[in-house]
Every structure is written in structure tokens, then in C-alpha cells.
Amino acid sequence: MSVPDLSVSCRFADYFAICGLDFDSGLEPDRLCGDNLHVSPLDRSYKGKILAHYPENVPSNQFDEHATCMLCLPAGLQFRTQKHSLEPQFHSFVVTRENASRYYGFSLIFYEEVRNKNICSAMHTLQAMYITELSSGQTPPGHRKSSGKESSRSLPRSFKLTPHTGAALTYFDIAKDKLYVAKSIALICQYPFVRVAQMFLENLFRSLPRQPGPGLSPESYVYNLLYEVPVPLPGQALRLYVPPPQPHLEAIPVVIRMPNPPEELPLLDYSLRVMFSNLGVELVVQLFTCVLLEHQVLLRSTDYNKLMLVSECMVSLLLPFTWAHVYVPILPAPLYHFLDAPVPFVMGLHTDSAAVCANGPRSIALCSEAALCLVDIDKPDIQLPEELPIFPHRTSFIEELNHLMDKYQIQRPETEPTKLSAPLNGTSYRHMNDNMSSSCTLPSGGLRRKHSFHDVLEWEESRPLNASPPASPTRRAPLRPDALQRIADIVKRTGVNIDDVDAETVMPTTKKKILNDEEQYNEDMRFNSAVRETFLNRFVHIFLMYENFVIMPDQDRESWLSSRESMVNFDKASFLSDQPQRHRPFLSRFLETQMFATLIDNKIMANWGEYDVNLQVFEYRTRIVRTNSLKRIKNAKWQVKDCPPELLLGDFSRRLSTEVTPAAIAQNNRTFVEKLLKECKSKTKRMLLEKMGTEESNLSFGSEVSITGVEESTMIASLCDLLERLWSHGLQHKMGKSALWMHLINYQELEQCSNSTKPIDPNYLTPDLSSVGAEVEAQQAASVSPRSRDSSRGGSRDSSRDRLSNSGTLERKSTQPVNPLRPLPESLTFDMRNVQAMTDIKTEIGYARAWVRLSLEKKLLSKHLRELLADTTLLRSQYKRTAFLRCEEEREQFLYHLLTLNAVDYYCFTNTYPTTKLPYRVLIMPSRKASQTTANCWISISGMNGESTPKIPIPRNTNEFVFHHKNLGTLSTLRIGHDNSGLSPRWLLDQVYVRNEVTGHTYTYPCNRWLGSGVDDGSTERLLVAARVRSEHTPRSPAPPAALHPHTPTTHLSTSTIQHMIGDCVNAIVKWHYQSKRDKDANSLSVLLCGENGLVKCLEQAFLCGFKSARFFGKNFFIWDYFARVKDEFKMSLCDEPSTMNNKNCGGVSYNCRQDQEHRAIWRCYCHLMDEVNSVGRSLGKDGKFQLFICLSLREHWLHRMLVPMSLTRVTAEMYEEQSFLRKRGLLTFLKQILEPLDEFDIVLENSLTQGI
């Protein structure tokens, strides 16, 4: 063939190649596939070569002979006989260049007869050598099992006797069998037009060998495709011709079209229908999640084309992201060592090749790796990595995809459940089958009678509420059952028998129409577009406002490219703060992936004119969503009538010439202001109702699905968006992404200048503020600004806010404990400095939202904004007269709406930034009796974020200090102790105060116990539970009572009071477990167990009731001593033989055999828990050990089971009175039954409570 100029335009195909056996080289084993001498010569892989390729070279795409041959024949050169299947097999492949660009190949593997006698003789010789080695037993046993039964040694005889067995297929008889060898014809293209390539290769193969006659030769079609068919431009189509299936027929015209982004999605010619019908919706979503998080993904199938199809479809669904790691959809046998790569990859492994290749067992062993996702396409089956987070809105996402499957009538796999199941936590997909094996909207395979109209009515009446309606090719909504019944009644009154009416004439049938290849391809492309838009729409809504968190560089392109690896380009902490809590596990991991970093890099590169196609497609759709465009409704029956031009343009010029009056402008602006105020009112009201209605939603006894409200983080993010829109309305000049933050920065600059004694330097201020400097300087001499009054520590508060949030404070102030810590400043700039010190926030939007969250949590948002807007000079310099912030009446209403949020408690700052390093102030208040100690003291604090500080040394000669640590969240417990060193180590501790210096949350830890050996219970370490100290901005509650020594003279509680206390504690714990995940952080389980009125304290009162310590054993006897004596008696009972216990009385009660077995098991558990508690160390006192024992027994569900065996011991009779809980049958039954409901829950304790046990 002559070679034309290929550099003019991009051709459809760059190369046409032929791969196969080179008769000059002979049979050459493929050494890269490993040692395969243990298998039959017909099953071995031999080395193939490129026999020819046209043209010789294309400048834009250099021909890679090695890669092309390896991927055209991925299993190597294979031989077969007439006993095998000789059907041609098509598959596509992709090659990734060093610069990350890709080109595609399409290969048709067929088998042609070997007529070369040398090759046949060589194969016969290898067959004889293999049989000789196998018969003599020289082949290792591990390799011998693949050749048949191990007991058979007469292999040639068995081959002849059973010609259809697997062993006979691997035997080649040169006298009787015909030998065939694999051969491939392939196309190398720049774009994956799969359908055209497959039709071309298959029809080209059918037309070979060419017989003399009319029609074009095969060479003509190849020449035309290589040199005369260009790739169409974006948005254009091209018709080309492929060979006919029979040589005497005419050429087949085929149309290809190149999509036109950003309106259209990039090219995808692979069928998503095939992938979904093979894998199912839920498996696709799980695989999609693994690919998004850049796990190692290994696909397995017996069909090379399925490997390529699933890989390409899955990567195409990542739009707008791109897979930037190892991508080998078809892994050839010589490249199996790639599976050891410690990087993310997507690879496809042929199932049969893994058994043949020597590295096959090693590759299969990778299935147990924690980061590997293994997918068997043929079963289908999936093994997921460990701790895989759930994709956001996974349930609704699967429902949407199922709806598309029903709409396009796509058959589901047999293992696909028709009902939506719960999210998978296991690793296997096959064990998820529902009772129904196929969709109710799909026709069954059996014969059916004529579908009458009665069938439709009966189906509608029997259909469950959550079942989907029958799929219909039209877009009209399905009729309700009552509407169908009314239609049937009307038809009956007309005298028509509806039994004779075919339902297919009334409503569309669900039976799928048989489509030809062209129609099926068009339907697949429609389904592709629908599914890809569905996936892309998920990303559009998740990352709708991502631009606000992109950190744009302030340098040129070359400088940024040289240092971008060390730069932070996205404010991840601020972005995650706006996301719902249940989505953060997935999003936090996804933001760390390379594909997300690539998208952000492409966004930054767009500033210099380098636009990425995927980014353009994504931003085109985000703009559509932001503009809230109307949905386009298609109606083929509705047409627009032609209208005369004079009617369209007659009044248009007069409208343009009419000037808009100032009154109209004012009216329009007034409308905008009223809409903003109405939106503010509705948002604050919704936030209040959602927060105050949490108690009712917790009683629904459901998971997150039962919550009808929006998550707190989402509502606060919406409030931040509203504030940004308010501050952006009527701006004179836009200076940054966040108008609110820029206003705050300008205010801070003026505040710093006004507080200094130096005159204001205009060069120091922001350009817009230089004109304001003179006015501020003049105001300082005249009067004190409201800012200086409000920013002073302990300044006056807004009276209206006091009336709302501090109702009744003055009357109750005398009953509240005095907070010994100095109050934090309530100034706006103080909170700004704290936000600016956060190192994990990088953008203006992030700083503004963090400041709003902090102010809202401190109940100072309305006060801060009032202070900010009180500077009218600054306000006039930045905003127009028509701006919302300069409308005094609406602005006051806006601030009062924000003031209503002070009625509820928000932890939106504490729970949103878990990685921020915060300062904590500790104040230790010892008793005056023993306020000093010579020991080395330490403290450790735990919070609800799962973080605990290490042992922090307490400085000597000071009781107040500050330490910095990663955000602990809401504080829960505190451990304080010392090493009992020195001459006077004993220390009487009253209580401890801990305050978050940013949020101002203060916690008190009552103690009133001794720390030291030989005093109190001998403990040198105490576990204290936090109690929140209410600030002046929150409704006050009575102070928590101080912890008392067990033997401090107190009024003895009655048994009914103790019963009531225990019942309340158990109810609170049960209710806590039924709360939704988002509300469990508000009330820690540690407080419910070990707090002042917790379950441990109540059970301590129950064990103290009727205790004889004061009468017989003195004042220093503790409940733990009773537990220790019970343990000794249990150990003695365990030493007795079970046979001797059958008739033995213990405590006056006889045992039978069954009770003895149960009690012995409880004795062992009791003794084991006691040993574990005693092994903690000497630092824990007797009361601390009792608390630890109760918590562990509740966690292990043994506490209520231990009560009866404890009550039967002699120690109980000696140390308790008759009216105690352990000796009175009614009280013991109550105690056992009230604790039994806790057996239903998995009680998870903090590490600070369990001491590592």
C-alpha cells in the first residue's frame, strides 16, 4: 500500500496489524509467562510476533510492536485442535503512554489451520515428551493435578477411550487431529469507537479468503479505513463503510459521531447496559466507591472483552475526575508481576490464565489484602476492602439507578435483589439475595395467557406501596388504582366487556421489543447518557460550591508549577464543615485522593487558559444547577405556530427606548430586601424547630432513615450561604470571595488603629478604608464608639438578648456556683483572632464560616453582627444606599431573628473541626485542709471526639495552667493522680475546672476525695466525670452536687427512692442507645454511667443499703471488700467437684445439676473480672475498682446474672441485713429485672473508663 501524508488530520485508525505464529522462528515458548512445562503442550503459551502492520509509522503515534502483540494475544500464542471451540473472539484493549495519554486497540482472535509439517511435528514431539515425564512421575504432584486423575498413568489409552473429557482435549494426535493456531487482526485507534471496529474486523474475517468475483477486496476496505476516514470534529457526524458479512453483498454504511462538550458528555462507546446486567446496581455502586477512594481493584472474568468493558465503563463514570494511577484492564500473562505494585490500580485478570500462569496462586492470594477490591464479573461476586465508607446518599442513588434499569427494561443478574437492601458491611455480594430473584416489572420466561385489563387492575391493587410501577416507554405518569377502577366502571356502563379488551391496547406492555443491532446500539447509547448524567449529577450536588474553597495562587504559572507539590490548593477543613456528618467519612478520604487533587489543579490551570474537557463539562452543569433553571418538558404534540415578525419586534424598540424610573428601581430593590428577610426568618425558624424537636425525633426508635429533618451541619452551612448573600448585596466593590470576611477584616484593621495611640496611617489600611481613616480619627475625639464599649472584658450586654436568652438569670444568680475562671472577652475581634490562628483553614470562605460557627456556638452571633454593623462609616464606604445592610428596619429584624438562635445549644464549631489545635485552661481547686502535696501530679482529659490527652504534668506551686491539644470535642472524663512520692503526698482535691479558651465551654469535675496511700480508699488516681458549667448566655441549671465520701454522714435513702433512681438511670441509658448517631454526642454514655447521678452511683447506694459495715467492721470497710470476699468463696466453690455440688447447700439453697453448671460459669466470669480489675495496679482505690467492675460487667452483659449467685453466698448473709437488696427476694428480683434490658445493647466504653481492659 502507498503511504499518504498522515500528519494532515487525525485518522480513524492509525494501524492495521496482524499477529500470529512466525513459521521461520518455529515454536518458541513464552518465557515471560513463567515455567509452564507442567501443563500439556496444547495448553502452553508460545511467543507470537507481529507478522505485518500498515502503515510502517505514524508520526503522532509510534507503533509499539511488543505492546501490540502482547495485548492482541493476551494469553500468548495458543494452539487448538478440531475438538476445541474455534469461534473467533473479539476484545478491545488500551495502552497508556509515559505521558499518561492513551490509545486504543481492537483485536479479533481466530484460529487457522497449521499446514506446516515442521510445526505439527514439533507439537507431536512435545506431546510425547510431556506424556513420558507425566507417566514416569517426574512432574511435581502440585503440577500433576491439572492433567487429570492422579491414579491414571496410561494417559494415551485414557485419551482414546474418553475423547470428550478434559484430558482428551489436551492431547494432540498427529495422525488424526488437525492443529490450529491463534491469529489476530487488529486496529490501533486514537478513539474507542468499539462498535465500528468490531463490525469491521468481524466482517473482514468473514470475507476471507477472498474469492474472485464482484465487490471490493478486503485490502480496499483496510486502505479506506486507514487513509481516507478521518475522525469527525466535535459535534459532527461521519458516515463510513465497513465490509459486508458476505463478500457478494454491498458495503454497510455506519455513522459515527464525536460528542461536543461541555453540552455533551465525552465519548463512551462501551455499553453500560452490559455492565449493569452482569454485575447489578448495588455491586456497581460498591465497585464505584472503591475506585473513587483509589483502592486496588482487580477484575476477573473468562472473557477479555468483559474486563475491558467494565474497566472503561467504571472509569467513565468518574467524570469529572480521571483515574491517574496504574490502569491495565487486560493484564497479559507476562505482566502478572504488576499485581505486586504497592500503588492503586485497576487491572483485569483472565480467570483461566491465573490457573495456567505460575504466578496465578500468588495473585489469587491478594484477595485477602485489606486494601484490595476483588470483583468476579462472571458470578458476580465482590470482596470489599476493610472499613469502606458509604457513598453519600447511597440508598437514593441505588433507587435512582434501579428506576433507570426498569425504564429501559434491562435484565438484572440472578443474584441482584429487587428490593433495596441495607448497606453492605460484609465482603461478599452473593449473600445478599432477596426473596425475589427478578424484578416484578420484567416478563417471566414461561408461557402466559392473554393479558387482560383485569390483570392490570389486580396487579395495581396487589402491588405494595414501595414497589415501582411497570416500566413504560412513554413518559406519562402511571394511573392510580382508584383511577383505573373508575375507568373500568365507565367502560362497563357502556356495555363493553373488559375481559375481551387486551391490556396492551390500554396501557403499554412491559414486554420488551426485540431490537436489531442498530436499534439496540441506539438504545444503549441513550441508557449510557442517562446513567452517566445520573452519576455526574451526584458529583454536581456534592461539589456544587467547591470553587469557594479553592485556594488560587498569587504567582505566575511557572512558579506555581515548580512548587505545587508542596502547596495546599483546597481548604478541606472548611469544605467538610459544610457537609453532613454521615458523609464526612467518605468525603474526608476522597479529598485526599489523587483524582481530586488533579481536578483542583485543572481548576487552577484554567486561570492561565488551559481548560480541561472534564472540568468544562462539570462546571457547565454546576452553572445550570446554580441558576435553578426550569425543567425542559418534551411534548411531541405541541408545536409553535409561526408568528409575524412585526408582532415580535413591533413593541420591542419602544420598550428599549423607555427609561427605567427611580421608583421602579426602588421597588425592585425593596422586593429583593423583603425576600432576603423572609428567607432569614424561615431559616432561623427551621433551625430552632429542628434543634428543639430533637427529643421527639429520638423517640422514633429508628436509624438515620427515620430522621425527617436536615442535619445540623447542612442547616448551618445554609445559614452561612445566606449571610454571604446578605453581605454581597449592594457592594460597592467586590474584594474577595467572602464579602462577610472582608468586612470583618476591614473592621479589625480599623479596630487595631483606633485602639493604638498612633495616628491612623492610610497606607496601612485596605484601599477602600483609606478614605474612612479621617472620619474614624475625628470620631475618636468626639465620643467613645460602641465597639470600644462592647469589646471591653465583662462589658454590658444587649438588653434584648438578655431578655430572650437569660430570662430569670438575676433571680437565680445567688443559687449558682461562682466560676473562679476569669471570663473570656466577648469582643468580635477576639473571636476573629482565634479563627485566624486555625492552621487547617486556608480560604476566606473557610474563615468566615468558622467565625460564624464559633459565634453561633458562643451565642454571640447576633451581638457580633450588631457590633459590626454599628460602624456606619465603614458600612457607608463599602455598600450602596440600596444594600440590605443599610436598610435599618430590615437589618434590625434580621438581627432579632438571629438572636432567637440563642435559645438552643449548638456545638457546630466544636464538632466540625476535629483536627484544630485548641488551648485548654485547667484550674485545680484543692481543699483548704490539705492543699499542698509533695508528689508529682498529672492530669489526663478525654473528650467525645475519641481523643485523650497523655498524662500532662501539673506544674508545681501553681493550680492554673494552659495546655494545647487537638480538639477533644465535648469533654467527658478526667483522670488525675500522682506518684505518691515525697514526705507529704496526701492531697485532698475539691474539684477541677477545665475551659476551652476558644469556645468558652467550661466543665467542672467534682471530686472531694483524698489522693494518697493510706487515706480514704487508698487511691492515688481518680476518674472524674465532667459537668457542664453554664455560661451567662445559656439558661442556668442547678449546680451538680459535690461528690461525697461513702461514709460521710448523710440521710439514708429508702429502698423505694433507690429503686426510682436506678429505674431512671436505666431508662436514660436505653433512650441514649435509641438516639440517632448525630445526637448521641450530646449526652455521653460515660456521664450516664459514672456521673453524679449515674448508674454506678445508684448501684452503689443499692449495695450500701443494709450494709453492716458500721455495726461490725468499723468505718474503713468498703463495698469492694465484700466483692473480694465473694470472689474467695466462688473460688472455693469452683475447687469442689461438680458431682459433690449436686446435693450441696450453699447459703441454705440446694443446687441441681443445671443450676450448678450455670452458676459455675458465672463464678468463673466473676473471678476473671475481679482478677482483671485487680491487675490494673495499686493506683486505683477500692471505690475506683468498684466503678471499673460495674462498667466491665455491664459491657460483658454479666451484671444482672451475677446478682443471684452473689446473694446465695454466706458472705452476703454475714454482711447484709434482711431488708437489703441482696437478701430480700422482691428487691433482688427488681434489681435483676431492671438491669436485663441493657443486655440488648452493645455498650461501648471509653478507654478512660476501662483502663485498657
UniProtKB/TrEMBL annotation:
GO CC aspect terms: membrane
Family matches, as SMART domains: dDENN, DENN, RUN, uDENN
UDENN domain: residues covered: 30-610
Main location, first listed in the record: membrane
PLAT domain boundaries: 918-1025
Subcellular location: Membrane
Keyword Repeat among UniProt keywords: yes
Superkingdom field: Eukaryota
InterPro entries with a match to the protein in the record: cDENN_dom, dDENN_dom, DEN5A/B, DENN_C, PLAT/LH2_dom, PLAT/LH2_dom_sf, Run_dom, Run_dom_sf
Record region (Disordered): 135-159, 775-825
Family: Belongs to the RAB6IP1 family.
Name this protein carries in UniProt: DENN domain-containing protein 5A isoform X2
Gene that produces this protein: LOC114249723
